[in-house]
């Protein structure tokens, strides 16, 4: 596939050549001056037209690669430069998908916060569940001495049951406690957080709230995208509305769409495209792959991204740094501008001046041959600038 701007260059070349031939024959018929016709011939052959676009794309793709951004083709530079809607997946993309303890509520004064998390972490330490890992991580962060449990049992889809320092400790969801005969006699709320229920010796002792954390730089990346001309930012997630809103809070997101299945993500992209948006989508998971393929531009997170997402995407980030999306956008915009400069100034203006000078008889074929190198050099230098010029984030 070729970039639209490249197709433009090809189209221009296809109608330019017959026009040039008619023009040259006309000049010869009127003036009978062979030298003038040769001079004009030099200026009317648009050799740089073929260079103007590919050179920029090579330079831009190289610049991006050096920044940790893999762009799978020049076509995507132009689409990215013109994108005006950016759609983010939530978990693993805007968030790090590493849940952390956000709040601890202890119900019993005899069992304060630190003791609650210490016993819960002891029960959880052999579990591989992300919520259990968050609890253990919090105890470690607080430098608590977490003992080995005397016995440990993972209860499918419920949580864990363990004996710690002679106490029976349950850590999990309400069903785990209820099925063990523990009354859930305190109100549990958690807007956008996952409550982990803890019972000790048959009593509901407290709740440890766990929440996924926003990636550092998410807010700045979204603000920078808006500043670069993106009109609409959307967040998609399979999670419920409360969890989605908790993450979106404080971010300049125009639309939050929760409770989505993978096919709903594709539909959300298609809907934006129907509204006339050029859509860039950023995702990490297998469930994002169809939407990444559907979007005009798909970005896959590199570090935590799945193989499916990396394959479906047009641009892969080598790290999970959201600022690289802004950098890619800036490189693309700069490249698009450079192509236009090359076409209009390098090719258009220089040729127009050369043709004028030839018609006026100011220069002959020898001078023309030398001057004609000008636009080639201009296009080359202008394109190479992309490798070194200051581009925010790159
Ligand atoms: Mg995800």
Task: Give a brief outline of the structure.
This protein has 394 residues and is an alpha/beta fold. The protein has helices spanning 4-31, 34-44, 49-67, 75-82, 90-94, 113-124, 130-141, 174-179, 218-227, 241-248, 262-274, 289-294, 307-312, 323-359, 365-371, 373-384; strands spanning 69-71, 85-89, 100-106, 151-155, 159-164, 167-172, 194-200, 203-211, 232-236, 255-257, 279-283, 297-300, 315-317. It folds into three domains: 4-56 and 331-387; 83-96 and 215-318, Rossmann fold, CATH 3.40.50.1000; 100-211, Calcium-transporting ATPase, cytoplasmic domain N.
Helix-strand sequence? HHHEHEHEHHEEEHEEHEHEHEHEHEHHH
CATH 4th-level superfamily of the largest domain: HAD superfamily/HAD-like
Report the CATH topology name of the largest domain: Rossmann fold
Distance between the termini: 26 Å
CATH architecture descriptor text of the largest domain: 3-Layer(aba) Sandwich
Mean pLDDT over the residues: 90
Low-pLDDT stretches are none
The percent of residues in helical segments reads: 40-55%
Overall geometry:
rod-shaped
List the bound ligands: magnesium ion
The major β-sheet equals:
7 strands, mixed
**How much of the residues is beta strand, in percent?**
15-25%
Let me know the number of strands: 13
How would you name the oligomeric state of the polypeptide chains in this document? single chain
Just give the CATH class of the largest domain: Alpha Beta
What strand line-up does the widest sheet have?
1-13-12-11-2-9-10
- Total count of helical runs of at least 4 residues: 16
